Amino acid sequence: MASINSKVIFVTTSPRTPSKMIPEIELLNAHFAGQKWNKETQLAFMELLKEENFFNGEGAKDPSFSARDRINRAPKALGFVTLSPKIQLTLAGEELINSKRKEEIFLRQLLKFQVPSPFHKPTESSAEFWVKPYLELFRLVRHFGSLKFDELRIFGLQLVDYREFDTIVEKINQFRIAKAEYVGNYKKFRAEYLDNEIREIYEADINSGNTKTRQTNDASISKFIKTKASNMRDYADACVRYLRATGLVNISHYGKSLSIVPEKSEEVDFFLQNTDRDPILVDNERQYVTYLGNPLIPTLLTDNRKLLEQKIRSEFPLLEISATATLQDLKNIFADELDNRREQILTDQVSAIKDYRQFEEISTTFDQIITNSLYDNPLMLEWNTWRAMTMLDGGNIKANLKFDDFGNPMSTAQGNMADIVCDYDDFGLTVEVTMQGGQRQYETEGEPVTRHLAKFKKETEKPAYCLFIAPNINDSCIAHFYALHKMNIQYYGGTSTIVPLPLSIFIKMVEDSYNASYVPEPRHVQRFFERSNELANSTENEVDWYNGITKEALNWLTE
């Protein structure tokens, strides 16, 4: 049981991206099911996790803590695993791994998550919790139609008791009025408003001098408020990512706002009207675990045959529904049709991209990423780079990120695969992107990038290269990738041709493709990477190689 000492909504924040827990609990179950969850199994789990690349090197100082951070938080709190008396997947966990439509599994579990619960007990100094956080956040988004990230962060997180829903709504209304009347810089207005709200939320702590935060001896009020503001940003970000995992919520990356997917509004209205808002089984862990792990509750619109048939007919009016089809048959049919529609949308997008019809939009998105104007820059960088690679040249370009039912990017690729893979018939290419900079870039990306390329070469059995893109390239990455050009390592399938390029240089390559008097071909891509091999073998050091290949990138289409 965990004690909660928070005065704002408590939600799960690890893993940051919900889909990341799927391969992790699958790995846990495959190797440790039936065993005790203790330091020994935690250390062993972390060793396996590192090998699978699901975990990018964080928490190396205390691997057992890192294991608990990955499993004891979201997987346990959302009812996908039980850890006592032994490690075991719940029925909901098995469904998450095996189900074709994982969004529905996430939805049911999020709607059941509650505070207080047998897993999470508020302390005397915390807020007086009585809420199913995700259920009420769905309600808040649905109520307003569109909810800004700032509104979620400043006010939505104060919804610690569902009976205060109307109070929070009024606070947001007053914020919007004040914002409309304010003359001046919005960031200053937001900062002042956030400061005032934090002072109100933590008034008792401030008045009593209880302002020292963890990992610092600074007890100043300014440091205290800054820390709480940062924590609230992290909690709000986690809320967005987990709500998004249900496939029911759209996010405007530029406007930084949430809304219900129009085609999903009936489904949202159904569970808002039919799901009990009160936490249950607060003091009965055994029954709570059974309830939480049940993948069939709460009831959703798709569990009602009549309503499901109406839903299918409204979205796919030409589809014939057999009277003998079971409810599960109908669910499978609906899932297949949604998948087919998404694939057709993506196919149409690719056609438009290859015809350069989206060049200006792709260029604008890169500009917004560089200026940090979008909500989720890592996701948008991965998605926009896929679009740019699709436009750049021929080949079958596949993004390993998660798309929603309407072809919009939902979450980045899982950690055990390259972000983008390109098949050019005679050779292949992996593309890895990151917003990380500094030494952190090398620590989290260096080895996984190399391993992804090795895996790709083994699977395709043909020559392959890798393009590594980041806003800025760290010197350690340059040295690492230069050395791999020359080192014949059997574990990585021989030498590894990995070319790191700053995002600005890659954008110039895309512009050159658009402005060329001919359509670039795969041979131009291969020629560029083979030139990297030549430079690696003819230069004295990594600096000369990097400068040389960067210059080549700026003239990659010169015959």
Tags for this model:
alpha/beta; three-stranded antiparallel sheet; 9% strand; 3 domains; 559 residues; FokI Restriction Endonuclease, Chain A, domain 1; nuclease; five-stranded mixed sheet; 23 helices; Restriction Endonuclease
Question: Would you write up a description of this structure?
Answer:
With 559 residues, the chain is an alpha/beta fold. It has three domains: 2-292, FokI Restriction Endonuclease, Chain A, domain 1 (Alpha-Beta Complex), CATH 3.90.241; 304-342; 356-553, Restriction Endonuclease (3-Layer(aba) Sandwich). Helix content is 54%, strand content 9%. It has 23 helices and 14 strands. It has helices at residues 21-32, 39-52, 63-71, 74-77, 91-98, 102-112, 133-144, 149-154, 165-181, 186-201, 203-208, 221-244, 265-274, 285-292, 305-315, 327-354, 359-370, 377-392, 438-460, 475-486, 503-515, 522-538, 542-553, and strands spanning 2-4, 81-82, 88-89, 120-122, 147-148, 249-252, 257-260, 396-399, 402-403, 409-411, 420-423, 428-433, 464-470, 498-502. It has a five-stranded mixed beta sheet with strand order 8-11-12-13-14, sandwiched between helices. The chain has a three-stranded antiparallel beta sheet with strand order 5-7-6. α17 packs antiparallel against α18 and α17 runs antiparallel to α21 (503-515). The chain is globular and about 70 Å long. The model has no long low-confidence stretch (mean pLDDT 90). Its EC number is 3.1.21.-. Keywords: Endonuclease, Hydrolase, Nuclease.
